[in-house]
Amino acid sequence: MKHHSLAALALLATAGTASAQSSVTVFGIVDVGISRYTSKSTYHSPNPFALPPANAAGGSAKTSQTALSNSGYAGSRVGFRGTEDLGGGLAASFWLESGITNDDGAKGITNFNRRSTMSLSGPFGELRLGRDYAATFWNDTVFDPFGTNGVGTNLIANINSRIAAIAGPGSVVAATDNYIRTGNSIGYFLPPNLGGVYGQLQYTLHENTKRSDQIGTPSAKGRYVGGRLGYASGPLDMAIAYGQSTAADSTTLNALGIATATQERKINALNLGASYNFGPAKLFAEVSRVQDKNETGTLQNLPGLAVPFMNTATRKDKYNGYMLGVTVPVGPGLIRASYASVKYKNGAPAATDLNSLLWGLNGNRDTTANQISLGYVHNLSKRTALYASVSRIRIKDGWNNPGVMGAITGGSAAYLTGGTAQAAGWAPRSSMGYDFGIRHAF
């Protein structure tokens, strides 16, 4: 018993010495609200004279959900961060942060999915290793009056998340990885003493295995390369960012080890954001362009000859968006508003099916979505706030790309499906959402 007590005292003494040299902070946010989501789908047929079936009476249908939600104003989380002063201007630090679902308690600190980094910083800047925000996501959230939280999350971020989840590489941590966050990353941040200039470079290791006996290895799927450069001084803040995510990189081999098919898919994102605080109001703006470039190859023979060659085809889908926003302080509160629009430009070859040729569908292959959001935050203290938000998304020609452009304001009130440019069925039309909640930070 005496030996155990001495060991415990020694451990406490060691911990006391360590704490004298460094600082560790426990922090977090608990955000909970009542939310209502409604999505409207319309029945679409490529034949303009076709009548909708009996179950599509009126040509539209709605799905709705009322839920106790989390993260309507700020993402619920628990985190630990610490810094040790190494002397000479150097510091070592760590940041471990986990998202939680406090509304139902289903997810606690089971992983550090929001951030898990180790850093070394000094006069040279900061070297940061681990899981962190992707460089190109920063502008989508920093220049959004709603901070990409709740029903007011701007349409650019909403659709970019859908692109990543559907076409991107994803990961075991999140389907949206390489857009919102990226793991296994190496990041460099400029020092903060450059007269308002700030920036970062980021590279994510794909960690795929190379085989010396197989061509096309290692696959680069999962790699992310990005950077951001900005300037902040007084009321002005502006930044530009560019990033490339390798969504697919594969080579199919036959029994002889010859490549018979290839795919290389890359998602390129470029955005520019800015804000200016006039005092009575703060204005926000962002423009964004995302290109989903998918190149596929198939081994074929030249016509009439037994000469094989790799026949390649490239499709480039583009998503061009902009967002305008404003926040207005009113006593202890803050009014928030934004408007956003995203246009999808179809990069597929013109369709040759009978419906497309008969009804001229090739002349209408794009999709446009618009969103308007309004909210109010009332600060009860520095840590606690009440909030209310409402948002509406409206989609034109949603059948052209329902998977990506079928954005909803939140929850599980998804659109009905089946309708495409060439097939009859349901297509996304509009989505409405409300949040009423409370947030506490500690």
TrEMBL record:
CDD domains: gram_neg_porins. InterPro entries: Gram-neg_bact_OMP, Gram_neg_porin_domain, Porin_dom_sf, Porin_Neis. GO terms for cellular component: cell outer membrane; pore complex. GO terms for biological process: monoatomic ion transport. Its main location: membrane. Homotrimer. It comes from the Bacteria. Residues 7-397 form the Porin domain. GO terms for molecular function: porin activity. It is found in: Cell outer membrane. It is a multi-pass membrane protein. This is Porin. Transmembrane segments: none annotated. Pfam families: Porin_4. Keywords: Cell outer membrane, Ion transport, Membrane, Porin, Signal, Transmembrane, Transmembrane beta strand, Transport.
